[in-house]
Specification:
Number of helices: 1
Helix content: 10-25%
Order of helices and strands: EEEEEEEEH
Largest sheet: 4 strands, mixed
Keywords: Membrane, Transmembrane, Transmembrane helix
Number of strands: 8
Structural class: alpha+beta
Protein name: ARAID factor
Organism: Toxostoma redivivum (California thrasher)
Strand content: 15-25%
Strand order of the largest sheet: 1-2-4-3
């Protein structure tokens, strides 16, 4: 994806739709910063060129090779932060596994059959119970409103 020399002052709003990009060029743009999370989901990104004043997203440790020339910085070979020897600041909770989610970013995915907050709930989501309660409440409220409001309706 070549976005070089497009007069970008900030990261484009549609950039999150390009998460399958392998090569991204942002050089020759007056970018002042790359907000945290700009590259969330960019797990396939292997080569990123940014203007020289900017650092590679995720820092130097998120890339295998970072080189700078007179006008740009080239970040190549995105590293998997889950396989890093550097201690993770927020390790994944029990019953979950670490997965990369972009340069220097991780996500914790619950192991089956766990789900919910910090993967503490075991089993599957109780769809039948949830649907039954929601359906009963909806029908009850509808009947109550129909019964109390039909006297206010004018007949033709």
């Amino acid at each position: 994806l070549d976005l070089s020399n497009c007069s970008l002052h900030s990261v484009p709003a549609g950039l999150p739709e390009a998460t399958t990009a392998i090569v991204l060029d942002l050089t020759e743009n007056p970018l002042t910063s790359l907000p945290d999370g700009s590259f969330l989901g960019f797990v396939h990104l292997q080569s990123l060129a940014v203007p020289l004043p900017l650092e590679c997203p995720g820092g130097r440790d998120a890339w295998q090779d970072v080189t700078a020339d007179r006008s740009s910085r080239l970040c190549q070979g995105q590293r998997n932060p889950c396989n890093s020897s550097v201690e993770l600041a927020w390790p994944c909770p029990e019953n979950s596994v670490c997965a990369p989610d972009g340069p220097g970013l991780i996500q914790c995915l619950c192991d089956s059959p766990f789900h919910g907050y910090k993967c503490l709930r075991e089993g599957t989501f109780p769809m039948l119970l949830f649907g039954g309660i929601l359906g009963t409440a909806t029908v009850s409220l509808s009947l109550l409103l129909w019964g109390t409001q039909r006297r206010k309706a004018k007949s033709p």
